Amino acid sequence: MKGTNEYLIPYVGLKLGKHQFEYQINKAFFDHFEYDEFDSADVKVNLVLEKQTNMLELNFKHSGTVNVLCDVTGEPFDMPIKGKLKLVVRFGETYNDDNEELLILPFGEHQIDVSQYIYEMIALSVPLKRISPNAKNMDLETLNEIEVKDEEEVKEEEIDPRWAALKKLLTDK
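User: That's the sequence. What structure does it adopt?
Assistant: Structure tokens below.
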């Protein structure tokens, strides 16, 4: 996230021990990452940073809601989400974030940007199948009322004339 220092933690000036940070995440946060899966978001993130002599241990926890579209009805709804992430930060010669649970920072660094970890933690906590509570209560009649095009209508509308000409070549054998 370029342009904001809100998610930069200067760990050099911190004493050894645990330090608590809180972040309130909304839609603007995800806009910085150009992530448009959510119509809105209201997520509270708690971060406990434990500074030790040769490493940092970061424990993220989040809970809140994100507004997504229901896979069944197509209507937006607020989906409750929660999750956690543990990250160990060690120091070495070069930057390395190949391992999702271990981050290696160069010895000269004095701060860590936690925005990417918050973004990934929240985005990955949303289930792939998003079904609103209203969709679970719908009966078969209501589902049948939703207009569904026949397969033939869809096929006729979607066939490009160029593809039709190519398809004709296959059937002329």
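DSSP finds six helices and seven strands in the chain.
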